[in-house]
Automatic annotation (TrEMBL):
This is Uracil phosphoribosyltransferase. It comes from Galliscardovia ingluviei. Pathway: Pyrimidine metabolism; UMP biosynthesis via salvage pathway; UMP from uracil: step 1/1. Catalyzes the conversion of uracil and 5-phospho-alpha-D-ribose 1-diphosphate (PRPP) to UMP and diphosphate. NCBIfam families: PRK00129.1, upp. 5-phospho-alpha-D-ribose 1-diphosphate binds at R78, R103, D130, P131, M132, L133, A134, T135, G136, G137, T138, D202. Belongs to the UPRTase family. Uracil binds at I196, G201, D202, A203. Coiled coil: none annotated.
Length: 212
C-alpha cells in the first residue's frame, strides 16, 4: 500500500475550517468538495494516458488524453457522496458506481446496504471516495468488494486517516491489489468510540445531518 499525504497551505487552511465544530453544514460541504479537488490532483497522477492527434487553430500536434477504459469513481455512502461533485469536476469522463456502507457504532461491524456497480471491474482504475478512514473496517470491506469484481488498481481518497486504520489496511488487503491512499492529513489516534482524534466528528452527520 502506498500512502500520500497532500501537504499544501490551501489544504491545511481548508482542513482547519472543516474541523471547527462551529463550521455550518453548507460551508462544510463546500470545503469537502474543494479539498477533494486538491487531493485529486495527486490521486490521478498515475492515470494512464495515450497519444491523440489534434489540430490547434495554428498547427497539427499530438496531445495526450486519459486512456480507456474509463476510470470508475465509487463514493461510499453517505459521507463519500460529499466528495463526488469535486471529483467529477476533475474527471468528467469517469463512470460513477455507488457503495452504501455503514459502520455499526456499537460493534464496528460493517453493514453493506446498497451497491450499484458493474459486475466486471477488470482493468478499471477505481477511485474510492470516503472522507474518514478510522478503524479501516469500511475501506477494507469496500476494497474487498471491488477486488471480487476484478479491480486491481484502487486509489482511495480520504480527508482524514487514523494511524490504526492505515495499519489495518496495510495488513488486511491482498498485496496483489495495487492500493494507494491519498489523504489530507493523518491524525493522532482513535478514541474509545473509534472516532478520529482530533478529527472532525461524524462526517456524514456534518454533511447531511443526523439520521440515526
Ligand atoms: O474506518 P471505519 O472505522 O470503518 O469508519 C469510517 C467510516 O465511518 C463513516 O461512515 P458511517 O458508518 O458513519 O456512515 P455514514 O457515512 O452514513 O455516516 C465514514 O464515512 C466511513 O465510511
Ligand atoms: O471520526 C470518525 C470516525 C468514523 N466516522 C466518522 O465520520 N468520523
Ligand atoms: Mg457517519
Amino acid at each position: 500500500m502506498e500512502l500520500h499525504v497532500v501537504s499544501h497551505p490551501l489544504v491545511d487552511h481548508k482542513l482547519t475550517v472543516l474541523r471547527d465544530k462551529n463550521t455550518p453544514s453548507n460551508t462544510f460541504r463546500e470545503l469537502v468538495s474543494e479539498i477533494v479537488m486538491l487531493e485529486a490532483y495527486e490521486a490521478t497522477r498515475d492515470l494512464l494516458v495515450e497519444d491523440v492527434d489534434i489540430e490547434t487553430p495554428v498547427a497539427p500536434m499530438t496531445g495526450k488524453r486519459i486512456a480507456p477504459p474509463r476510470p470508475m469513481i465509487v463514493p461510499v455512502l453517505r459521507a463519500g457522496l460529499g466528495m463526488l461533485d469535486g471529483m467529477m469536476k476533475l474527471l468528467p469522463t469517469a463512470e460513477v458506481g455507488f457503495l452504501g456502507m455503514k459502520r455499526d457504532e456499537e460493534t464496528l461491524d460493517i453493514i453493506t446496504y446498497a451497491n450499484r456497480l458493474p459486475d466486471d471491474l477488470t482493468g478499471r482504475h477505481v477511485f474510492l471516495l470516503d472522507p474518514m478512514l478510522a478503524t479501516g473496517g469500511t475501506l477494507v470491506a469496500a476494497i474487498e468488494y471491488l477486488a471480487e469484481r476484478g479491480a486491481r488498481e484502487i486509489t482511495c481518497i480520504d480527508v482524514l486517516a487514523a494511524p490504526e486504520g492505515l495499519k489495518r489496511l496495510e495488513t488486511a488487503v491482498d498485496p496483489s491489489i495495487n492500493v494507494r491512499v491519498v489523504v489530507a492529513a493523518v491524525d493522532e489516534k482513535l478514541n474509545e468510540k473509534a472516532y478520529i482524534v482530533p478529527g472532525l466528528g461524524d462526517a456524514g452527520d456534518r454533511l447531511y445531518g443526523i439520521v440515526d
